[in-house]
Amino acid sequence: MTPYEYERLMAEAIPTGRFGRPAVDEPTRTASSTDTPEQQAARRAALSEAQHGWRLPDQRSQKNRERTAERKRAARPRHLRVVPDPTDTRAA
Asked: What residue spans carry the Polar residues bias annotation (predicted)?
């Protein structure tokens, strides 16, 4: 394996989000320095509209979801099972 191949392999193996591309130093953007108050207000309005009508689930529906998930887990076949020792001489 050549050093170039090893470098490509390691670039793909380590999750950096760059997918093997070199790191690029980009200046970080802050909302207060680049956005105008009108842009910020428009984003807040869009967020408020998206959140309108959304609510947390009530306690009963949450318990139903948990109960359904527990039933699904219980219905799954087990991967391991206990097998009795064939050389065990103790009475059952």
From this structure: 29-39
Helix or strand or coil: residue 32? helix
C-alpha angle 35-40-43 in degrees, rounded to nearest 5: 125
Q: Which residue has the tokens 């309005």?
A: 45
Query: H or E element: which one contains 61?
Result: helix 59-75
Statement: the pTM of the whole predicted model exceeds 0.90 = no
pLDDT digits (tens, 9 = 90+) for 21-71: 666 665 555 655 678 899 999 999 999 888 888 777 788 888 999 999 999
